[in-house]
Specification:
47% helix
Length: 258
């Protein structure tokens, strides 16, 4: 541990597995304390227990949260105030991948994808800023996707919701700067990362064939690891990135360079 996040207090959504769990471990390794949330409450507690087993009791706490619910956001921000003593980093990681063309979705399905992927960032930032203002410098880290920058015919909802996160990130960054707050906001845009979500996309198909097809689309010739994203989140959460705001960090193995 080099203490890059020593003294930082973080809230990480979608922390039961994948990118959220990897980020939790990376943050703890660098000295942060955190509240981990997920709709899968048992999974969030499992991640917290694993973090605490390695880094000490009380490093990570856990709570259930539906990120599309404003009342849940009010509750978890209140919990961060009471249990952590404040908040200096918000990682909006929770998300859902709904595949389909613009003709495939019902309106309710469309709204669900937008609510989980984009409304959550709006709600989280709106309520977390009240705490972050008193623990500056602060950092808001929004997990978007390379799919928010590059479209696909059968990712209509995911493309739209993650592109919205990209632009919302910039608006938040400019708002905080205009207020004179030392709070920055940046987005991370991964391509194909080996997480349970990627497994879900390959469900019912020849997984080996699907993964090989994805690898062929990446110039570096491999899929991403959850730790690749966690390392980027550590940088954005640390004071090393204090002059970086309103920016997008592409972790796509070169996909967007083509």
């Amino acid at each position: 541990m080099s203490g890059r996040l020593q003294g930082k207090l973080a809230l990480i959504t979608g922390a039961a597995q994948g990118l959220g769990a990897a980020t939790a471990h990376a943050f703890a390794r660098e000295g942060a304390r955190m509240l981990l949330t997920d709709l899968n409450e048992d999974g969030a507690h499992d991640t917290a227990r694993a973090v605490n087993k390695t880094y000490g009791d009380g490093v990570a706490l856990a709570a259930r949260q539906d990120v599309a619910s404003e009342s849940d956001w009010i509750d978890v921000v209140g919990a961060a105030r009471e249990t952590l003593g404040g908040l200096s980093i918000l990682v909006n990681n929770a998300g859902v991948v709904l595949t389909g063309t613009v003709e495939d979705f019902t309106l309710d399905e469309w709204r669900r994808g937008m609510a989980v992927n984009c409304d959550s960032v709006f709600l989280g930032t709106k309520h977390a800023l009240k705490l972050m203002q008193v623990r500056q410098p602060g950092s808001i880290i929004n997990i978007s996707s390379i799919a928010g920058l590059i479209a696909s015919h059968n990712f209509a909802n995911y493309n739209a919701s993650k592109a919205a996160v990209w632009m919302l990130t910039k608006s938040i960054a400019l708002h905080c700067a205009r207020k004179g707050w030392d709070i920055r906001c940046n987005s991370i845009h991964p391509a194909f990362v080996l997480t349970p979500i990627l497994d879900d996309l390959a469900s019912g198909k020849d997984r080996e064939t699907i993964m090989a097809k994805l690898v062929r689309q990446v110039p570096l010739g491999r899929l991403g690891e959850a730790e690749d994203v966690a390392h980027a989140a550590v940088y954005l959460g640390s004071d090393e990135s204090r002059f970086m705001t309103g920016a997008e960090m592409k972790l796509d193995g070169g996909v967007s360079a083509m």
